[in-house]
């Protein structure tokens, strides 16, 4: 199958745009390659420190042959998605020894959960935790003891942060090792219904807590298709997983077998062997485009309109929202997973999962097959399903046809002709909208603005009965420079309830929505943000706004002369400057780039 012309065009455009930065990155990474074990370049004192606590691996680490795998882990036992990583280091060390190598936990990175911090002050640290994780990954690998890397991380900011950090050590092969989703609990649609009833005062706190506990009930990732599970789909599409690893449950024999296989493969693809696969050459413009196509095809999280821009930049690649928009418009929607449908990720996996979707996209020419996957083959091999033949790990072809056409469909019979991730632009700046879960009749609105400087102010207005008629809720002062760009998912039940009452509404914000955002039209990540004198700060109560996701536009229908004369205004940001650790992130707020640049604080050009 020949490559789709849009995939080909966007990939070529990214390569051309990134020629200088990518060339510089590859030159630095290629210069770091060594063909002897990394530890052999350390002084005796350095090396003795490095293996002092290595136990039975000391003889190997003292020697001059065989690779050493660095483990970067996001383990903690409070968060369900990361608790399964507790036994991984012991399993990986055993697998490495059996393969003639060794493995050490190089370091840990924080893993915070938006589900715990949603609507709370801690959410203002959420996006910057990605950059902190990148820094932590770099610190872990800075000991220069390692010939390959396994990254144990799965959720929202953890995977992008690990990728950004690991890419600064792009001369090393890196394999991402997931933990898998929890079993299905209370269906997401039922949970959302209880949330909405609670927002309307029709359900008690006890009823709400019971529903939440029945939904989030076991080790593993949450089962909706938010940012965490979108991460796993994108890792498959970029060839950074062992094939089919994404949605295998924790604490199963198959999960352990895949972790062992990742360890063995990491040792095979070091610079010490014949199949060297450094991350710098695994993550290229083709792999990034594959990730964006997979995101669109599955109705994935809008957070990746930030994260993958930042990941690409870490690899010397420059992408923007036009690239995402253009790819999404030609990529058919092949999956309906909550909030883009009623099924959860376990149903998605059972219906065919990432392997089926990737095969369909390859056959349609929408993805690049010839990327350098960590498992040693092309992306075609990434479509294979893992299974256990007794105790032996094997792979087989994905199903020839979908096992459930209400959840996964082929390219010939998609749920929609496009993925539904849109770039919006106009006199309000640029933004992103996800319309795959928004009914066609709600994808455009012309209505007066109701302006708020905090999500709680909107919720207070709802409780006071002040949100009547059609309107566009403008929630500003929520960008990365203002307060770290928190998710505003706390608004979802309230806005959904208003729409269900028959009102035509939309959200316009320089903040983020959750990967679980759904049926209400939302223009998010507005850039420039209010704190950067963006046009969103010019909006006044009652201004008529027009948001048209189909046309890709967002406008304030205000006289041009009056609009030009207005001074941007927003509430004081001083209350967001301290408390619950916020004072420690002042430098990040000052240095952070725009949302379209990935809202990243790490890419500052240094003066020679």
Q: Give a count of the beta strands, DSSP E runs of length 2 or more.
A: 14
Could you list the spans in which at least 5 consecutive residues all have pLDDT below 50? none
**Residue share in helix:** 25-40%
* Number of helical regions: 24
Q: How confident overall, as mean pLDDT?
A: 94
**Strand line-up across the major sheet:** 7-8-12-11-10-9-13-14
How large is the share of residues in beta strands? Answer: 5-15%
Q: What is the terminal-to-terminal distance?
A: 48 Å
Query: Structural class, please?
Result: alpha/beta
Describe the structure.
By secondary structure, the chain is of the alpha/beta class. The chain folds into two domains: 5-183 and 218-396, no CATH class; 421-597, 3-Layer(bba) Sandwich (Glucose Oxidase, domain 1), CATH 3.50.30. Helices cover 37% and strands 13% of the residues. The chain has helices spanning 5-17, 19-31, 44-51, 58-62, 88-98, 114-117, 126-141, 158-167, 188-199, 205-215, 227-237, 253-268, 279-282, 285-297, 304-314, 321-330, 345-351, 353-363, 379-382, 455-463, 480-483, 492-500, 560-565, 586-591, and strands spanning 68-73, 102-108, 148-152, 174-177, 385-389, 392-396, 421-426, 429-434, 444-452, 471-475, 505-509, 522-527, 544-548, 553-556. The strands form three sheets. An eight-stranded mixed β-sheet has the order 7-8-12-11-10-9-13-14. The chain has a four-stranded parallel β-sheet with strand order 2-1-3-4, with helices on both faces. It has a two-stranded antiparallel ribbon with strand order 5-6. It is globular and about 75 Å long.
Task: Name its key features.
Glucose Oxidase, domain 1, alpha/beta, 8-stranded mixed beta sheet, 4-stranded parallel beta sheet, 14 strands, 2 domains, 13% strand, 608 residues
């Amino acid at each position: 199958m020949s490559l789709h012309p849009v995939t080909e065009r966007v990939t070529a455009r990214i390569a051309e745009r990134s020629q200088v930065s990518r060339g510089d990155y590859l030159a630095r990474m290629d210069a770091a390659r060594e063909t002897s074990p990394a530890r052999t370049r350390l002084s005796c004192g350095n090396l003795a420190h490095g293996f002092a606590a290595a136990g039975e691996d000391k003889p190997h680490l003292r020697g001059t042959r065989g690779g050493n795998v660095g483990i970067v882990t996001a383990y903690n036992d409070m968060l369900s998605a990361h608790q399964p990583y507790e036994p991984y280091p012991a399993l990986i060390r055993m697998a490495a020894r059996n393969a003639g190598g060794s493995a050490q936990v190089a370091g840990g990175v924080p893993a915070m959960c938006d589900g715990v911090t949603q609507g709370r002050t801690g959410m203002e640290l959420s996006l910057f935790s990605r950059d902190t994780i990148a820094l932590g990954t770099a610190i872990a690998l800075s000991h220069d003891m390692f010939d390959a890397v396994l990254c144990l991380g799965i959720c929202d900011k953890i995977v992008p942060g690990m990728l950004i950090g690991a890419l600064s050590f792009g001369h090393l092969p890196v394999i991402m090792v997931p933990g898998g989703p929890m079993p299905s609990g209370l269906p997401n649609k039922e949970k959302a219904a209880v949330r909405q009833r609670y927002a309307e005062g029709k359900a008690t706190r006890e009823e709400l807590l019971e529903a939440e506990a029945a939904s989030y009930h076991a080790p593993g990732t949450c089962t909706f298709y938010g940012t965490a599970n979108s991460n796993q789909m994108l890792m498959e599409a970029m060839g950074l997983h062992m094939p089919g690893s994404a949605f295998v449950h924790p604490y199963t024999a198959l999960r352990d077998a895949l972790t062992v296989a990742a360890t063995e493969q990491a040792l095979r693809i070091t610079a010490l062997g014949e199949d060297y696969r450094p991350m710098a050459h695994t993550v290229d413009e083709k792999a990034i485009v594959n990730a964006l196509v997979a995101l669109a095809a599955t109705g994935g999280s809008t957070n990746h309109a930030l994260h993958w821009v930042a990941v690409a930049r870490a690899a010397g690649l420059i992408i923007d929202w036009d690239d995402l928009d253009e790819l999404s418009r030609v990529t058919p929607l092949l999956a309906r997973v909550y909030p883009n449908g009623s099924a959860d990720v376990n149903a998605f996996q059972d219906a065919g999962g990432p392997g089926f979707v990737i095969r369909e996209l390859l056959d349609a020419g929408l993805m690049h097959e010839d990327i350098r996957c960590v498992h040693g083959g092309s992306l075609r091999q990434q479509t294979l399903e893992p299974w256990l033949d007794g105790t032996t790990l094997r792979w087989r072809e994905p199903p020839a046809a979908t096992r459930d056409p209400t959840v996964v469909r082929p390219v010939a019979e998609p749920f929609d002709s496009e993925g539904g991730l849109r770039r919006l632009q106009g006199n309000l700046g640029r933004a992103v909208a996800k319309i795959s879960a928004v009914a066609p009749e709600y994808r455009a609105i012309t209505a007066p603005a109701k302006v708020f400087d905090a999500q709680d102010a909107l919720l207070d207005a709802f409780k006071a009965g002040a949100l009547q008629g059609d309107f566009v809720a403008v929630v500003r002062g929520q960008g990365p420079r203002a307060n770290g760009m928190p998710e505003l998912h706390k608004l979802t039940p309230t806005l959904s309830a208003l729409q269900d009452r028959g009102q035509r509404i939309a959200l316009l914000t320089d903040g983020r929505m959750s990967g679980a955002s759904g049926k209400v039209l939302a223009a998010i990540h507005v850039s420039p943000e209010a704190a950067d004198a963006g046009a969103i700060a010019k909006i006044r109560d009652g201004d008529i706004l027009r948001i048209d996701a189909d046309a890709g536009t967002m406008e304030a229908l205000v006289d041009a002369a009056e609009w030009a004369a207005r001074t941007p205004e927003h509430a004081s940001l001083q209350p967001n400057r301290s408390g619950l650790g916020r004072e420690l992130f002042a430098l990040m707020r000052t240095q952070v780039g725009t949302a379209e640049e990935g809202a990243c604080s790490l890419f500052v050009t240094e003066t020679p």
